[in-house]
Amino acid sequence: MSLTLLLVQGLNGLQLGILLFLVAAGLTLVFGVMDFINLAHGVQYMLGAYFAAYFAAQTDSFWIALLLALPATLLVGLVLEFLVFRHLYDRDHMAQVLATFGVILILNDGVKLLFGSAPLQVPMPAALTGGFPIMDGLLYPHYRLAIIAGGLATAGLLWWLVERTRVGMLIRAGATNAPMVAALGVDIRRLFMLVFGFGAMLAGFAGVMAAPILSVEAGMGDNLLILAFVVIVIGGIGSIRGAFLAALLVGLVETLGRTMAPDLMRLFLDPSAARQVGAALASMLIYIAMAAILAFRPAGLFPVRAS
Amino acid sequence: MAEAVLALRSLRKRFGALTVTDDVSLDVAPGEIHAIIGPNGAGKTTLINEISGVLPIDSGRILFAGRDVTGLPLHRRARLGLARSFQITSIIPAFSALENTALAVQAGDGTSFRFFRPAATERRLNTAAMAALDQVGLAHRAATPAGAMSHGEKRQLELAIALATQPRLLLLDEPLAGAGPEETERLVGLLRGLRGRYTIVLVEHDMQAVFAMADRISVLVYGRLIATGTPDRIRENPEVRAAYLGEDDIPLMASC
Amino acid sequence: MGWLRKEAPALLLLAALGLAPFAGFGEGYILTLLARAMILAMAAVSLSFIVGGAGLVSLGHAAMLGFGAYAVVILDDLQVVDAMVVLPVAMLAAAGFALVTGAIAIRTSGVHFIMITLAFGQMAFFTASSLSGYGGDDGYTLYARSEVNGTRILSDRLVFHFVCLGALTASWLLCHMLLASRFGRVLRAVRGNPMRAQALGFSPYPYRLTAYVIAGAIGGAAGFLFANATEFVAPAYISWQRSGELLFMVILGGLSGLHGALIGALGFVLLEEWLAHQWEHWRMIFGVLLILAVLFLPHGLAGLPAQLGRMLRRG
């Protein structure tokens, strides 16, 4: 395998990690503050992509679509919170899992009903269609670099919000000990709505950014959601820093593993067997990594919750 | 004194800047009822948690039945014969009183990796469980779901669970907590009836009750043991009286 | 006789399934549907055993089915088709997977456990998808159903119906006995009050892991039957949505006893079948029903009569 391929795959892994982080950030905060497990967080990502596709088709502009899609995902998130989620805070995790699974079923089919079953395409913004020469004869798409940059900027903003503002302080305190924060007279429900809406919008943002490079289709959020679960389990529930590092780790392992595992297997096996075993191994890699990390640190890399 | 059932040697524990257990050493003799008293925040429950293995200690040694158990977790100490009750009632609400107690008997009766015979039909378990329920006066409530019992009955059941393990040492964390006057009287009578047959360490706020049933009392203040002795000696100890100055629930002068 | 009365719903249901082929439900289409319902009920019973019995809410139980089904596929590819070999291998494969993943997952609890089982289930799914030798995403068509003593007796619809019913009954009885045994008593105690169980000297871990492995083995057996029922296996059968559906069956029926899983699974499959014929986007209705069931049926369908009774008495 060439160094160039490694570099490209490294950048792709970084980009996947960034998208994962945007989805995982909201999930881990919602978990941390409300002890609420939301399987339907992935549909926010899908909705972001669908809104982007819809608004882009209507306005012929990716940028206007981006601006419209963000409040739209925020709105859907708040409506879901109002209709379903807030009735589940006092229930056990199993009830939360099932009801939010129901939300997934509704929305995955709902987008098919509204937008048709065929996958949608979102054209790349014209300004970012080119590529950046990272080596002789190799261009890395501007757009993917823009995703990395936009994601990093958002991560920075999030870090500032959580670490440096009053609301952020409450969120961190809530993740450590929610009853304590409630006892201090903070309206924890309003705090949660805020965290929830913001998390939904971040996931939607990730969906908008991913829309031009993926096909927009029902169920696209589900697989990403499970990767996001792996991310927050590895990072430690409630920890933004943990989510960030774990997201990059998972993104890189996932992407590089798919490239490298078959090559590595070729050292031991004949080519066709190596391809099969390598592919199987690559798909297991992040879960093996998760298991290894949990074996040593059952609460994740950066545990937040006071036991 | 016969060899101690439980021996604490220089236990220390800190939570951040707060020393909650400060050089505590103590011997508990077989068959005695040993009460640990002290003002609020003295670290009594912490000490119980350290002895039973819920909380690790920073330094010191805990000897139980001649064995060093300092590093053993809760369930291993339990298997050596250390039974404990909890300050907040800890029973299994969905189980009947009988099944709660039979589970405790089962803990000391061979392996629980038996998969096919219904446990509810094992006569040996049920007989021993009924005997324990009888000892605390709950035999007539054997079939009642524990979750549906009154508070006082739950405390009695908790005692039956502890007795059913045939423990070498009973650790009781505020066995009278939340009990009304009548219930308290009944529970004190029960505990006094166990004297000599069981070794009991208990933490309790109700001073009247403590002085009525304890053979020896240890006084804990800010994590330190300031005195250990018979109720009469404790009553006369000036340091103890100073520690309790201003608290009005102390019957130090009262006759029992 | 108290046992008989308590288990009457389950016994009646099993008896009805036994009579169904002779009571006008003997058509191929209906038997296929019932076989599917019974096989999923088997998986649901094993899931109910660990959720209701041990408090282990697994969102990766479909992977157990998957290991059983893919054991059939891989052995079929090697031309090993005798059920006496294939079934034990299917159960051992699933149990082995349960042992390895359970050993890690059971060290955690609550939400961590849910997410980790989900992740391991997804791992099984993607691994199955990457097995290009067995059709990858497109799945693998079996040459034929497994043989018993060299005969193709399982291909007979009626025989297969009763094999599924027998397997379901056996799974239900087994889980029942396990929950009533000393072992099961400790499991239930750990679920009800882990601190109390530990203070009595029971370490939860080995009991939970054992239960998880047993449930895995039953799931593997269900996977074996599933592959035989459809004669086709694809990764889509073991996606995480399937795990969610299994959990839904368990909750829909109610957790108060294993019969809830039976009722839930049959109700689920029949409802799914009916809705799918009504509207292309039936899953939306399904999602709404799921949310309503969680919000308004805390004790599931099995608890519905008692719930209605309470409401009536309250006026």
Automatic annotation (TrEMBL), chain A:
<feature type="transmembrane region" description="Helical">
    <location>
        <begin position="191"/>
        <end position="214"/>
    </location>
</feature>
<dbReference type="Pfam" id="PF02653">
    <property type="entry name" value="BPD_transp_2"/>
</dbReference>
<dbReference type="InterPro" id="IPR052157">
    <property type="entry name" value="BCAA_transport_permease"/>
</dbReference>
<keyword id="KW-0472">Membrane</keyword>
<keyword id="KW-1133">Transmembrane helix</keyword>
<protein>
    <submittedName>
        <fullName>Branched-chain amino acid ABC transporter permease</fullName>
    </submittedName>
</protein>
<feature type="transmembrane region" description="Helical">
    <location>
        <begin position="63"/>
        <end position="85"/>
    </location>
</feature>
<feature type="transmembrane region" description="Helical">
    <location>
        <begin position="142"/>
        <end position="162"/>
    </location>
</feature>
<comment type="similarity">
    <text>Belongs to the binding-protein-dependent transport system permease family. LivHM subfamily.</text>
</comment>
<feature type="transmembrane region" description="Helical">
    <location>
        <begin position="226"/>
        <end position="256"/>
    </location>
</feature>
<keyword id="KW-0812">Transmembrane</keyword>
<keyword id="KW-0029">Amino-acid transport</keyword>
<feature type="transmembrane region" description="Helical">
    <location>
        <begin position="39"/>
        <end position="57"/>
    </location>
</feature>
<feature type="transmembrane region" description="Helical">
    <location>
        <begin position="97"/>
        <end position="122"/>
    </location>
</feature>
<keyword id="KW-0813">Transport</keyword>
From TrEMBL, chain B:
<dbReference type="InterPro" id="IPR032823">
    <property type="entry name" value="BCA_ABC_TP_C"/>
</dbReference>
<dbReference type="Pfam" id="PF00005">
    <property type="entry name" value="ABC_tran"/>
</dbReference>
<keyword id="KW-0813">Transport</keyword>
<dbReference type="InterPro" id="IPR051120">
    <property type="entry name" value="ABC_AA/LPS_Transport"/>
</dbReference>
<dbReference type="GO" id="GO:0005524">
    <property type="term" value="F:ATP binding"/>
</dbReference>
<dbReference type="InterPro" id="IPR003593">
    <property type="entry name" value="AAA+_ATPase"/>
</dbReference>
<protein>
    <submittedName>
        <fullName>ABC transporter ATP-binding protein</fullName>
    </submittedName>
</protein>
<feature type="domain" description="ABC transporter">
    <location>
        <begin position="6"/>
        <end position="247"/>
    </location>
</feature>
<dbReference type="InterPro" id="IPR003439">
    <property type="entry name" value="ABC_transporter-like_ATP-bd"/>
</dbReference>
<keyword id="KW-0547">Nucleotide-binding</keyword>
<dbReference type="Pfam" id="PF12399">
    <property type="entry name" value="BCA_ABC_TP_C"/>
</dbReference>
<keyword id="KW-0067">ATP-binding</keyword>
UniProtKB/TrEMBL annotation, chain C:
<feature type="transmembrane region" description="Helical">
    <location>
        <begin position="282"/>
        <end position="304"/>
    </location>
</feature>
<dbReference type="InterPro" id="IPR001851">
    <property type="entry name" value="ABC_transp_permease"/>
</dbReference>
<protein>
    <submittedName>
        <fullName>Branched-chain amino acid ABC transporter permease</fullName>
    </submittedName>
</protein>
<keyword id="KW-0812">Transmembrane</keyword>
<feature type="transmembrane region" description="Helical">
    <location>
        <begin position="158"/>
        <end position="179"/>
    </location>
</feature>
<dbReference type="InterPro" id="IPR043428">
    <property type="entry name" value="LivM-like"/>
</dbReference>
<feature type="transmembrane region" description="Helical">
    <location>
        <begin position="246"/>
        <end position="270"/>
    </location>
</feature>
<keyword id="KW-1003">Cell membrane</keyword>
<dbReference type="Pfam" id="PF02653">
    <property type="entry name" value="BPD_transp_2"/>
</dbReference>
<feature type="transmembrane region" description="Helical">
    <location>
        <begin position="112"/>
        <end position="137"/>
    </location>
</feature>
<feature type="transmembrane region" description="Helical">
    <location>
        <begin position="38"/>
        <end position="71"/>
    </location>
</feature>
<keyword id="KW-0472">Membrane</keyword>
<feature type="transmembrane region" description="Helical">
    <location>
        <begin position="83"/>
        <end position="106"/>
    </location>
</feature>
<keyword id="KW-1133">Transmembrane helix</keyword>
<feature type="transmembrane region" description="Helical">
    <location>
        <begin position="209"/>
        <end position="234"/>
    </location>
</feature>
